[in-house]
Protein 1
Amino acid sequence: MESEIMLDNKNVITMKLLHYFITEKNYNPIILQGVENEIWLENLDSDCEVIRIVSGYIHNNEQFDFDVFKTKRILKKIKKKTFSFHLNVMSIFLDLGDNVTKLGEDPKLMCINVKEENDINKNDLIKKIFPDLSKKMNYHEDGIELFVKITNDINKHNKEDASRLEKVFKTKKTYITYFLMAVNIIFYLTPLLLGQFDSVISSYCVHGPSIRAGEYYRLLSGIFLHGGTIHLLCNCYSLYIIGSQIESYLGKVKYIIVYLFSGLIGSLFSMSFGGSAASIGASGAIFGLMGALLYFGFYYRVYLGNVVKSQIIPLIVINLGLGFMLQGVDNFAHIGGLLGGFMITMALGIKDKSSTFEKVNGWIICTIFTAFVFYLAFIYSA
């Protein structure tokens, strides 16, 4: 019985397509409830982000119209989860009736009719988007041997993919986060115990006129100073919660770069829009870590889509909102840090996700943005 199933033409084509899209093109299955006789695959880094392999029989135009309607509804849900405004979708139909005459009428959905393997080689759309598909479907094995090979290859690929994800999301030692917390605490307690608290704040805070006069060290020294115990504890707690995640996700070197760069951009924003007011605190750098987390969440939105919507974005919005409502809060530093963290993470890239092209573009954008902020701080606002 098993041999007969494996020799069925439709099942063979389905297996070969799955093997190609999963092992060659890094597509991942989308788990959908209540969907039968079709397989959904996604790769948000591909030009064609969603692939549907439909093995159910569609008899006429009415059934086909319902399939299109159902597909669009499911796509809306996928767009919401993945923060995608547009998804290119290719539906590969393996059992389309001769009475279906509306194939290809909807330009938003690419529909391919495949009854035999030769149909793949004849289809111009497939050859344009996946030019190697027809060649990759040629196997020396058949029957049970083909089933075993494809199953083993897919299982091996899935294990490797799971191993990569485990390395990314596995909780790691967060030495840098504890080090930064310690530095913030030392910079607060030392002058306080020596009776020089006000003097240190005055000499090392972010202060536009002083920085323009040549005291450039204030751009970074100010992000390690705090005005009181509550201020320090709030920032240390935020750093512990958010920083430990970023250190785990990005790695220690990228983490410290994001922290310092975000703090720098936050200080420059404070200079640009805060006038001659003094500013202190690590919150600009911490907002930069939120920006980094937002960028990381975008790349892993298939896995973190709900977390980004329910936790990361609300956290950013609430904290910015509080900054506008409460007196004495330098929200300009928060906004600058958030933008700086997002952009420097774009330049540094996400391991196994960001391409060289994306990172080069990130560095270009980050450089232009930094130059513009320096212009605002030292020339325009002077």
Protein 2
Amino acid sequence: MAQSQAKLINRRAMLLSSAAAVGVAGLRLTDGAATPVLTPSPTVAPLRPAAGAVVSLEAAERTMALPCFGGKSLPLWTFDEASVFPIVRVPRGQALEVAIKNSLPRADEHITLHWHGLRIPNAQDGVAYLTQAPIMPGATGRYAFTPPETGTFFFHTHCNSVDHFGRGLVGALIVDGDEAQASDADLVLMMKDWRLDAGKSFLPFTTDEGAAKAGTAGTVRSINGVTNPVYAVPASGNIRVRLLNVDPARISEIGLEDADGAIIAVDGNGCTPIELGTWRLGPAGRLDILMRAPKAGQVAQLVDYFSAEPVVLARFLAEGPEVRHDAFTPAPLLTMPFKVADRSAAEHLDFTFSATATGSAVAATAAAGGDALAIGKLCLSKRTFWAINKQPWSSVDHSDLGPPLASLKVGRSYIFELKNVTPNAHPIHIHGHTFEIITSNLRDLPSVRADTILLLPKERIEVALVADNPGRWMFHCHILEHQETGMMGYVTVT
């Protein structure tokens, strides 16, 4: 999650020769193929409810052909008939009411909606049995709350999550009102892999090897359902790029090429602008990047450097007259009224993230090339590969809660020491609260606020929080196979 030095590879000549050529109207030639310039992406649908209006969603199977599928239609699970990734957008201070109907095709497939990163009342958090009764097939559930802070968030179900994410059941929530200086464009980019075989049919969404190690990787990368999309942006403009990692497993090292950029928010929380070299972004993490677009006809690109070969995630084609002529000086976002932990009086709590004996054995077998049995449907699996404080989450469907990992008192400050004793990274997410990052034994971490902390192998990170939101709150790894095979629990705030 830390900022690191940029590992920039200059591909300007290749980009200019490929992306600057004009094809038919609305198309640009990139890498020798006609690629649509997307403003916005046709796979997302912004929903801007008026005050007092109800947002209606329906979780259902819909056969769709995304651009990244190469013309193949697949039975996706989505929240909205008009798009794959709905984007609910409201101004700060406006109440939000959502009605969600469960029309999923399986008879036993209950759902809830978790509002990832939002510090809302516990009854609205959306975890079956922990905070509410599940929404059964054919039934409709309702959520009503006022988002307390601005930022970039998302929503998803919270059981059988690998299957649901794998089929596309996720949406974004944007709460506007944090810009002291308005940006010239605002793009919401949802990064997700798809597990497809050579014939573009779904592969199993989980494997034993993936669940016991780093997660089961996808085979087709996409932004908003498009591989390497090209977005038209105003030349020399300040472009706000909201990048959400909604993949079940992928960790990326995010950077920009051929454009200046700064991180202005982490997990939706505004921060002092940080010059973007690269940034380690795990599943469920979000980055708001302010980018100064290049001059007209030139292309900037968003890149993942985590792989052996850098991967271009998206490109930004500058068009029109230059809208800015000043030096790029990103303005900080407006500060939200978070309570700051009193570190001198904080109680220290340790949380150790480890593998179980079963998980270690499965990982060793997989590493040696041995066969393992398939896990099956995740939220219905009693097999546990991971644990927090030696306590694996073994609930069949969230209904067997077990004891809390910790009991916190309302209004008190706490320092959590998060210890990863495994050889795999774990993005650790807490519901209903945000962390103030203090220190790491491996990296120089900036003092930002986050709700999802990427723990590297053998890393120890200290974070501070104020337990100011009463209820029972999930605390888990957001590599979804890890979550559903043991690395999950909850804390109470009373």
